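Repro:
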Amino acid sequence: MLVVADVITMKVGTKVIPENRLPSLIEAVKTLYGKFSSNEIDDETASRILGHTTSRSGAYIQKKADLRSFGLIEPRGAVKVTEIGRKVSYPDDVSEEQDGLINAISNIELWKLIYEKYTKKGLTLPSDFWTDIRVWTEIPPEEAQKSAEILRKAYLEDIKYIKPEFELKKEEVKLERKKVDISEAISLSPLDEQAKLVGGLIKFGAYDIAKQFIDFIKEKESKKEEPKEAKK
């Protein structure tokens, strides 16, 4: 733990983790936005609304620092809910809420690394999760093993409202768009260009997209042959 001016943070190597967990901070920003929208709020008013006796209390200072770490309020000046804070507290739809949650945890460097490697792909954290911690934080193996379970619990609490299947659904939509783009690319490219494109995709391991190209070309060629067969 690291204490700086009444603010407590968990420091693992070069990576810093907020003391308060994201779900409780979302409740706090929901209270702030519900009463003041995105207008500026002075510290005394904000502290009272959040249940603190004074803006000088350690608990309020800590909460404010953590709200800033997740990007839920502006990083400097008076308390003001950001667009990320608005999305996670009063979203227009599920898509916007999920984007806000992902943006919030992405403001914590270590959380972003974990999210990109595991959660985004719908994977659970492995039993040897500490090996990732060792690499990302550059701390000794024994220290990484001791920190891993604490970090696991904190991370899972912070992402509890994120829906991995939503992220995967977005990837499916992107793939559908790619299919359309592929069709257009093939129709506009000469045969030698198409061959080079397929070869390049295979070279870089994009086998699924390469297969889409080949299937599309086959389908297109078979349709060209149909009128000839009819004349016979």
